[in-house]
Amino acid sequence: MAAAGSVGHKYLGKSGLKVSNICLGTMTFGVAKGAAAVFECNTQLDEEKSHQILDRYVELGGNFLDTANIYARGKSEEIIGSWLQKQNRDRIVVATKCRFQMDVSDVNKAGLSRRHIVQSVEESLARLKTNYIDILQAHAWDNAVPIEETLRTFNDLVRCGKIRYYGFSNVCGWQLQKIFDFAKYNGLNQPISLQQQYNLLCRQPEWEEFMVCKNEGIGVLPWSPLKGGLLTGKFKQGETPDKTQSRIGFVHTDEKRALQSAPAWSNYAENKAYWNLVDVMSKIATTHGKSIPQVAIRWLLQQDVVVSVIIGATSLKQLDDNMGASGGWELSKEEMAELDAASPRMSYYPYEMIWRVNGPDRFNEFNRSIKI
């Protein structure tokens, strides 16, 4: 378990903002019937339990909260808002998101248009009971809106003090580069963060998005570091996950409801590469006297592009364990290499060729910061 105050802090991208290297994700806060499957799951927390998690997180040295307006249809933000009323607001960094449809009866209640972004910010501020948002993140790309409209709106919100910074989430490489270049060459505030799924079972962002981040000084905030529970070691071969104990078990009975954050069990139940990875993680965890989830999170923290890993917690025990990855120990180079080798990873063209022909002998530190 991490000792109080032992959590590390890092600058978020090129900004002067420092955040704890473990960020508390709050998608598990609040229950919303009729919403996405994960928000109806038995592991969702009520306000009292959510506040207990928040209190303990801050006690352990964390200062960085991640939420979204769509999480439990606003209930996550409301729970954080009621908790913030009892805190020193300026000591907490709050990130939220907008993009997805909050009201299916209103065609304009979605996307990254100026109208919807401004409306979303005002509604999030009311739910969070604060007068500013530290980081506003676009939850995904919007094909319906010119990126100029979105970025100028973000810039205006920074200038009027409604938000301090902005970032993006769930975008591909060309989209992120276009976002950054438009902001840079039009004299607008630039994005400081990319929130992207990244874990030992999802390494695709390494091919392109993270190359942009390294080149442009954008900090990475990995979400789903444990791949919805697959990287915790709690699932056993030949056993079906309990639907009352995990999101994966919850969607198992209806895999049409599976999401990236709640993957279909059928994709992994007989996957030899997955079970080999779990065995390798278990061995390394035993060597260090740590848990399997701590190994998964520590692997992320030792990636040079990562600033803060977004964890979710449904109990104080789970929170304490995850926070124990934040500092005080490290995986060796050999262990990092062993995890890399065990992590299922496909070589796609042209990425494999780009990485192969741009080895260490083609790195010029005066040209760019990226090391392939």
From TrEMBL:
Domain NADP-dependent oxidoreductase: 22-342
Cellular component GO terms, alphabetical: cytosol
Assigned keywords, A-Z: Oxidoreductase
Superkingdom: Eukaryota
GO molecular function: oxidoreductase activity
Pfam family, one: Aldo_ket_red
Protein family according to the UniProt entry: Belongs to the aldo/keto reductase family. Aldo/keto reductase 2 subfamily.
PANTHER family referenced in this protein's UniProt entry, alphabetically: NAD(P)-LINKED OXIDOREDUCTASE SUPERFAMILY PROTEIN (PTHR43364:SF4), NADH-SPECIFIC METHYLGLYOXAL REDUCTASE-RELATED (PTHR43364)
Protein's recorded name: NADP-dependent oxidoreductase domain-containing protein
Organism of derivation: Potamilus streckersoni
